[in-house]
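[recover] target loaded
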């Protein structure tokens, strides 16, 4: 499947499209007088949208993914390099006259700079661009070097998903004898990223960043909010991604599997 097809399927499966389609199906059934089925789908869609928008629900979902503690210095000392996964770019930003790292990528390179100051491990940045614009890798390299004064040793720019991040990073680092890496990405993304990189052949020292550690207090925990629907959607995306990787040998089609 093409990246466009994958994106369309993802949007149908994820929020809010899946629930909107469920509610639309309920309305159609009501229109043809299948009242019980129609009301069931409509109420499930509305209820799901409300529950998944609650801070309480979204936080619980996210905590199933997040490692609770940052990387231990002793474990980090075992790594031969830091690998930073691209999280996307903000294209053609007028104030910079250039593409810039989006909030996810910026959080990752900021933490990469922090770790580099402590351990001076060589850095690989990995990330392409499925739309044909400037690759995540080049943007992250530019900002690490110009904004944080941190050198980038390797740049990978062909990958368009986490499985390819791992595969193409191995193609660069494996021949150089770099097999143990500090893997740097958001805490919620770490389980799937670690799964992909270990499958590619790396020994992974997880170095997660951006933890969801501040719970919402009181009645606001149960008031639906748009930001928390997005958080729930992120958790669902990661669950589906991990399941897909297990079913497809790390995201590769059956024809690409070894043996």
């Amino acid at each position: 499947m093409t990246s466009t097809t994958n994106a369309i399927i993802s949007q149908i499966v994820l929020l809010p499209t899946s629930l909107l389609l469920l509610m639309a199906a309920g309305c159609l059934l009501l229109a043809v007088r299948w009242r019980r089925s129609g009301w069931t789908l409509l109420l499930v869609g509305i209820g799901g949208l409300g529950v998944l928008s609650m801070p309480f629900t979204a936080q619980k979902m996210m905590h199933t993914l997040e490692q609770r503690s940052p990387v231990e210095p002793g474990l980090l000392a075992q790594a031969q390099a830091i690998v930073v996964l691209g999280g996307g770019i903000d294209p053609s930003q007028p104030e910079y006259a250039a593409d810039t790292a989006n909030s996810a990528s910026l959080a990752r390179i900021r933490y990469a700079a922090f770790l580099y100051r402590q351990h001076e491990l060589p850095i690989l940045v990995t990330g392409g661009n499925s739309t044909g614009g400037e690759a995540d890798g080049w943007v992250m390299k530019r900002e690490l070097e110009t904004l944080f004064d941190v050198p980038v040793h390797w740049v990978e720019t062909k990958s368009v998903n986490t499985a390819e991040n791992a595969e193409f990073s191995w193609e660069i680092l494996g021949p150089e004898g770099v097999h143990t890496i500090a893997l740097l990405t958001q805490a919620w993304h770490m389980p799937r990223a670690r799964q992909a990189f270990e499958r590619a052949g790396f020994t992974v020292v997880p170095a997660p960043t951006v933890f969801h550690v501040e719970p919402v207090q009181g009645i606001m925990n149960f008031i639906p909010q748009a930001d928390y629907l997005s958080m729930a959607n992120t958790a669902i995306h990661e669950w589906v991604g991990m399941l897909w990787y297990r079913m497809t040998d790390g995201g590769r089609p059956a024809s690409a599997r070894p043996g």
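[recover] notes: The chain has two domains: 3-65+220-256, 73-209.
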